[in-house]
Every structure is written in C-alpha cells, then in structure tokens.
Amino acid sequence: MTSVQPTLRHSPSQAGAATGWAPALFATTLFVSAFLLFAIQPMFAKMVLPRLGGAPTVWSVAMVFFQAALLIGYIYAHLLIRFLPLGIGALIHLAVMAAAAATLPIGIALGFESPPTSNIAIWLIGLFSISIGLPFAVLSASAPLLQGWFAASGHPQSSNPYVLYAASNLGSFAALIAYPVAIEPWLSLHWQTRIWSFGFGGLALLVVVAGLCVSGRPRLANSVKHAPPVSMRDRLAWVALAAIPAGLVIAVTSYLSTDVAAAPFLWVLPLALYLLTFVSVFRDRPWIDHQTIVMVVPFLVAPLAVSLLGFNQPFWLATIALNLIAFTLLALLCHGEVYRRRPAPVRLTEFYLFVSLGGVVGGVFAALIAPLVFSRIYEYPILIAAAALVLPGVWSGGVRRWLIQAGPALLLIAVAIGAKVALGAQMPAVLLVPFQIALIGLAILMILLRKQATRFVSLVILAFVLTAIWQPGLNSIKTVRSFFGVHQVVILEGGRHHVLLHGTTIHGAQRLDDKGAPASSPPEPLTYYYTGGPIWQTIDAVRTIRRGLARVAVVGLGSGSLACQRRGKEAWTFYEIDPEVVRIASDPRLFGFLSACAPKSEIVIGDARLTLTTARQRYDMIIIDAFSSDAVPVHLLTREAVAGYRSRLTDTGVLVMHISNRHLELARVVAAIGAAEGLVTFVRTDDRPVDSLSSLKLNAIVAALARSPAHLGKLPQQRGWAEIKPDPRVPAWTDDYSNIVGAIIRKKFGS
User: Fold this and answer.
1) What pairs with residue 551 in β-bridges?
2) Distance linking the first and last C-alpha atoms of the chain
3) What tens digit of pLDDT does each residue of 577-614 get?
4) How far is residue 304's CA from residue 309's CA, in Å, rounded to a whole number?
5) Phi/psi at 679 (5° precision)
6) Which residues face 612 on adjacent strands?
7) FRET pair for 339, CA 20 to 30 Å: which of 267, 392, 487, 493?
C-alpha cells in the first residue's frame, strides 16, 4: 500500500472553533499521560520481583500484560471516537479516570502474597490485572483518544494528528530514562507511588481542558465514508510490522538482563529505545532517513548473527551495545514501514488498534509461547531474521525467486541439521578456532552481499542455525527451560566433567569416572565450592569453633555441590525456587552430589524470601548462593531479606553470601546491609591462580556476616579475609531502594 496523505476537511467556522494553543495542550496532555503510563511499569514490576525470585522472566510476562492492557485501552478509545459524540465520550472518559483514581495509590492486590509452584505466568498476569489493570488501561487509551479529539478539533494542524504520537512516545521515553537515573536511586517505592498518584490527578485536569476544546464537535466517524478504503492485507501488515519489534524488545531484554541483573535499570533501556523509534519515524521528517537505516542494518545484523548464540561473551559492554543498537535499527526499519502504510486520520483509532494488536501478538510469542516451545532463547534470532525480511527487495520477484536466491544457504542449513540429527556428533574443542574463523568469513560474506537482500537474509538464518547446533567443546546432554531461565548439562571436551550451565554461567560441575558416569566415593565439590575455597573456609571455620554444625540452610541448589561439604549427622536443608534445577541435581546420572552426600536432605521449593523466613527451625549457618545466570537476584540482597535470614539464625549463627559477579560490585552493599542489621561483614576475593579449564575450580567472592567476629572463629585472621566497613557513599539496599547503576560503575571503575 502506498503512503496515504492524511486529510480531514473542516469548514472555516469549524476551523476557527479550536484555539491556537490546542496543539500545545494536546501534546502536553499526551506527554504527561505517557510519562505516567511508562513510569508505572518498572515501578510495579520492582514491587513484584521479591515474590518471584528476581527472575528476568517477570519483566517478559509483565510486558505481555502491558501490551494486552494497551490493546484494551485502544479498543476503548476506538469505540468512544467511532460511536459517540466527542463531548459525551469525554464525560465517559473522565468518569472512568475517576474510577481508576479510586484504586490509588498502586500496590500489590490482596491474595497475591505468594506465587504458585506452577502456571506462574498466568498468576503473574492476574496479579498485574487486578493490581494496576484499570489505571493502566485508562492511560493506554490516551494516545489514540486525544489524537482523535485533536483530529476533530477543527484546528488547522489537525489534518495530521499522527505527529502527536511522537509527543506521547517522547513522554514514555522520558519516564523510562528518568526511572533508573532520577527516580529509583533517589525515591523509595512508597514515595514513588504517592507522587505518581498526584501526577494522575494533574492529568485528569488536563483531560478536562482538552475535552472542553472538542465538546461541541461532531463525531470523527462522520468522515469515515469519505476516507480511502483499507484492505485486510493492510491491516495484517500493520499487525505483522508491529509484532516483530514488540517481540524483539522482550527477547533482547531477556537476553541482556539474564547475565547482569533482573532490575528496572536493564529492563527500561530496550523499552525506551523501542519507544524512541516511534518518536523518530512518526513524523513528516524522520530523525534518520529510511534509506540510511536500510544501509546500516546489515553491518550490525551480520556480527550479531554469528555471535548471538555463542556460549562465551567476554566483552559484555560491547555485547550489550551491539544488541541494543541492532535492535533499535531493526525496530526503526519495521516502524518506518508501519508509518509509511498509515491510513487517513479518520481511521486513526483503527490503525492504532491493529498496531496494538501486533504488539500483543509479538509479546505473547516472545514471553509465553516461546518458553514452552523452545529449550533455548531461539525466539530472539527468529525475530531478528523476521525483521531482516522487511528489508527492501527481499520479496521482489515473489516466493519462487526468493527460494532460488536463498537456495544455497537453505541447502547448507538442511545438511547441517541432517548431520546433527543423524550423527549426534559434537564439534571437538580443537575445531573452535577454525569454526570461529569460518563464522567471521560468513559475516564478511553477508556484508558483501548486503545489497542482495534475499541472499543476505538467507545467510543470516544459516549463521543462526550453525551457532545453535554447534558449540565446539560442549556436548549438551540435557537442556531444559523454565520460568527462571535455560539450564544446560554439558560434557566438556574429553568427557571429563558434567557441567551445569544457567545462561552463560557455570552453576556446578562434577568429574566423571572412566565409564563416563558421575564419580562417587564421595564426589569432589568443584567450581566455587572446592575444598580450600572461601565458601569452604567459612564452613570449616564456623564448624571448628562450634565443634560441629547442627542445622545448615542453603539458598540455591545448583548441581548440589555444597551437599558434599556436609559432615556427619549435620542436617542440611536446600531452598530452590526452580523445580527444574531440583530435578537436575537429583538425577544421579547427571550429578551425584545429593545422592552420595545428602540423600535425605530436605529440599524446599519456592522463593527463599518466603519459604526460609517462615521456617520453624533456626540454623547455625545460612548460605545464600542464588544466581540467575550471572545475576544475583537483587531482592535477596536487601535489608528486609537479610533481616529475614537473621531471624532464622541462632544467636551465634553465621550468614554466608556468595556475591561473585562479573558486572556488579556487591561487597559494600552487603556491608551496609549488615551494619544496618547489627552484623559485622568479612569478605574475601579468591585470587588463587587456578586453572579453571582443567580443574574447574573457580575463584569466588564471598561475604561472611555475624553478630560478632568471635562467631567466625579464626576466619578473620586467615589470608585474604578483611572486614568491610560501611561506606557512607553506598547506602543499604532495601525492597524500596536499590542502585544497580552505582554497583556497575564501582565494578567497572573501582570507585
């Protein structure tokens, strides 16, 4: 469909009816509404995190709710504009806003104190719907409703109300940028919700004034019969082009936040960029010319295609930058096509309705369907390839020509998949360098063929398939995906170890015997839990001074490695949020730690914030070893969490926190929390020169907290251990307050 120049004729008397400041009024109202709409998203998601283990999937499912509520709001706006006089529609909208105001301030609804053990995504959508569904849907309706009012206002500029969508998305962008920079670091959740409520009241006043401007205007639908027709093909194109970037924003967020932190800081960046693409292209003169976008996209997609599914991502800042820039350009590509296909203003609400439907389709695919269908995060490369199909020229000549040009790459894909299925062979580690060289050559070939869009896209698909099925040196024997992430059990090169991976991080390893089975008698703890490491030192020091440990609680099961640090008749209880991890650790064919060292130990499934703190027994030691890939769940590192752990410790009990992290400096955070709870904090950063590839003994950063240094025995005097005093520049984190940005800066620059 070619671009439609939107027109809406008004009589001179109608044109004079609207005041000269109407554009500023409507733009301001849309900005405020969008700011409130997108401030509530990270705010409420942060409230929910402590109930769901800080899993990045919380945000993915939340995005599905946001898209669905947006669709409901757009349907509501479409009905008001299409079937009611504008004045009556304005009164109804104000009444609905008043009903939404009665539910403020926002908070978690009663009955959702703890999640179920299954169908968590459905439970989470119910939580969002009951807690913030009405105010969110009301705010969602603002963009199409106010643009429809402006289109019917009679103002000389009302012939193209789509430009107001830029003001709406600019408000959304401002909220998402302000939240991690100016809101989260400075305001507690209590004050955030109160200030948000006052903002909602101010918006209601702006809506009253905007409604008065159009109260005497006729229905916008009176002009529909004069508008150019819209075909079902046009509507499906709106849905498809909107669905791709909507799914991409969820996929890229999940990909990035899994290995850093499940926190609003990393959630809002992709969403903010997603909204900024609307601001950029929904205007007469886009910020970036469409041809420029088309020219640059291959240079970013090519390196992404050959590296996205690789195991090791050592340059995480470069990885984040590459993914975000590529995502932004692909979203610009799709949204530019959406805007080019926009209808006349009289069909504005219908247009936004189908665009919103596309958002729901993309969100449901990425957040709900893909985790059930795919064992890894394959939805991300699928959506990248789908976005690349939007490039001009991909479909010129029809499907037959497309198959001919893509034929060589498709043949190689078939051969690679067939070889994998038939032989089941894994590429040996010795071929790692040649494989990487081949991938670099493939990326160069993509760039050379970038102007032949069909061949370029086929090579992108080929690269994704090759990197998905071949990981040199890693033979995957089990892959499971749950609400909390992707878990793989792999055999390292040479068949010497079983290794448990969550995302890109090792969560446990066990040496194999000569027959390729997990070694017994008893198995040796490896990775961060090796004998002589800081976690072992803490257990040994406390056990020595107490002459034994009666009860020990471990938060985070992993492969069960810590079970083999148990001695004698000690009662160890493991708390694990993910049932899939329990199944892996309990399978002696995969890992034998539990079966050999603690076969009768209790395993409690659920979030330790809820299960451990409500336990009846008290423990001599609590070990916090909960990771989501390389991300430490923030809600397990707050003052409220530590207060809960402290309540379950004996008077001389010790709290051990494993705080190894590639991206966050957490020692000073833990020290601040410990001091606030009356605990001293000693930290050791393991710096032994271990050969992780051959021995799989990994360096760890460990904090030991106790009411008195005497409760730690000789640990404070051992090499490498030092007491960390609270730093006044690093306040204690709470459920209301955390500062991920500061922790990243301290880790990166050491300040």
Assistant:
1) 571
2) 56
3) 888 999 999 999 999 899 889 888 999 988 787 788 88
4) 9
5) -120, 145
6) none
7) 267
